[in-house]
């Protein structure tokens, strides 16, 4: 796989790297990890990270000036379907490479590298590099470790494997600052802490099996948080013993809601796909929902839970 990837990179002078909308640590980490890797191995090439959405300040800014896409190779990271690709021009590029770990719902790309068993796209990339004994720069290893850490939820979910830890050890060998990465990716401020406490006070429960929060725009704005930061707080409902499925729905400025869905054992990604979303079997997202949509979705999740218990 990596030989074919490098063969394609060598054929192009311009490389454009993309990730999904509303990028998380794995989307940003795989995008900027790939950028630094290519710049390290092919310093003569022009490499651009593209995207329009806000992102954690730990990552660099994306490129926004004009590019001749017709002569470029597009590498799309951590994005299951083309509708979720963040940034312009990928469909104008001469070739598209897809690198991902989500279930295949859209087989776009002229060349694809997809491992659904990996817990992160950064794991997919790092696994290939490790197997070929590629020496990484500290920057490239740092960004890839960020994605591995966040999408594995600090190495705590069931998709974490022996390979995940082998990859973590490989990335750690390049003198990355583990303490700083953890701090930058997970540390919050007092405004966030107070908002998280507020969210817990709004939690609703269905049969003590599903927990959910509906957060309006005024809720997070009174704590001076952006939508991008507020929508990340689904973890406030995690680790409740009785709860099987938990969800956070956050209102956007257009008054629709974006939702993060999490499950311990119940498959939910096919349900999410029916509500303008998708993702992993136990961790998915939905978007453009009305309040009526949210309650319909919750009914579907409860029905799925009961079906799995039958």
Textual characterization of the structure:
- This protein has 2 domains: 2-185, inorganic pyrophosphatase (n-terminal core) (Alpha-Beta Complex), CATH 3.90.1640.10; 190-309, Diaminopimelate Epimerase, Chain A, domain 1 (Roll).
- 38% of the residues lie in helices and 20% in strands.
- It contains 11 helices and 12 strands.
- Strands 1, 2, 3, 4, 5 and 6 form a 6-stranded mixed beta sheet that branches. A 6-stranded mixed beta sheet has the order 7-8-9-10-12-11, with helices on both faces.
- Helix 3 (121-131) crosses helix 4.
- The chain is globular and about 60 Å long.
- The termini are far apart.
- Separate helix tally: 11
Percent helix: 25-40%
- Computed structural class: alpha/beta
Question: Beta fraction of the residues?
Answer: 15-25%
The span between the termini is: 42 Å
Gross morphology = globular
Largest sheet: 6 strands, mixed
Q: Write out the CATH superfamily name of the largest domain.
A: inorganic pyrophosphatase (n-terminal core)
- Determine and state the CATH class of the largest domain: Alpha Beta
The helix/strand series, from N terminus to C terminus, equals HEHEEEEEHHHHHEEHHEEHEEH
CATH architecture of the largest domain: Alpha-Beta Complex
Based on CA atoms alone, the radius of gyration comes out at 20 Å
Number of strands: 12
Mean pLDDT: 95
